[in-house]
Amino acid sequence: MRHTRHRSPESSEPTADPDARWLGPVVHLAFYALLGGSLVRYLLRHPPGPGVTWVVVSAALLALLYALGPVAGPARGRDRPASRPLVWLVAVVAAWSVLTVLAPSFAWCAAPLLILALRSLPAGAAIPLACLLTVLVVVSLQRLSDGFDPAVLVTPPAVAALMTGVFLHMERQAERRRALIEDLLRTRRDLAATERREGALAERARLSMEIHDTLAQGLSSQKMLLQAADRVWESDPAAAREHVREAARGAGRDLAEARRFVHDLAPADLADGGSLLAALRRLAERGTKDGLTVRHHIEGVPLPLPERGEAALLRVAQGALANVRQHAGATRAAVTLSYLDDQVVLDVADDGRGFDPGALPAPGREGGHGLPAMRARVAQLGGTLTVESAPGEGTVLTASIPLTPPEPR
């Protein structure tokens, strides 16, 4: 990753980095402490005179110039031009250099200036400035020594190199960490968007199944009843009126289904604490019309089912009987609910014309929604749906779900 420190005016220093908050004040305090200590050391070793006055004035000007840093200086901000920290830092380094030439004791102030240079400038400019500061420190300390001191020649460059290397390494690590955080935030946003899309698709699938199993099936049944009434309107007015009344009752049930569907409640037959057994009985009674006889019976000991399981089995029974009326040409149908040890099984059998299960139309075509919707509904509860049929041999639809279905995801 390419190392850089300058940011565009639109970006700002990350506010979540605690190091950026405490490093600046520590550097400023260290600079003023070293500046004051160097001035005290100089005054203790030099008698009053014009030279001392110039040093004191220069030190005061350097302190004042450095104090402008928080306003003009190295803290990179959203509304601060990139050239201003460089101008301020050059001015401070120049004033310090002049002061160091006058009084070598002020060479110790180079350490915080080096940190400021590394914080404020890119590596290409900070490293040459660090070299210049090191040279001035070496020269100044040699002037303070009685003679040539090899330690003074080696120690400042070694310390400066160590500080520069550690600081640049930490900066690169911080850049990598910021990039990683940005990647994680971007990934989290993408994941949230994906989850929203998947949720929307799942909701669309649920809505399509609900509409098919309730409103579409009910409207189809009412259409058949009204067509039957129209056929016998002249020959058998009583039967025609009964068909119309049955269609009206079906419209009322579908209206209740639509209202509960909008509020995402249970099927109308299961509302107000209704049981699945009673709902299947009413469904069979309503299904006995137009020459179709529907029987229902229970096998095993009824066990309590979750509301989602009861709703799914009732929807499957509704859809299966609707298919029998519309497509099978059957005279008899049977709805059987069997309670086994670990699952409950719903069978809907008819004596109609049958069909080839392998030749079912694809979802989206006429008649192609019912079985896929039933299979998806049962699969959501960890169950299975099978269809056994052959031309001329009737059809048996079997839906089985475990008594303890998995929690919804």
From TrEMBL:
Coiled coil (UniProt feature): none
One annotated GO molecular function: kinase activity
UniProt cross-references to PROSITE patterns, sorted A to Z: HIS_KIN
TM helices/strands, residue ranges: 22-44, 51-68, 88-118, 125-144, 150-168
Keyword Cytoplasm: yes
Chief location bin: cytoplasm
Protein's recorded name: Oxygen sensor histidine kinase NreB
Lineage: Bacteria, Bacillati, Actinomycetota, Actinomycetes, Kitasatosporales
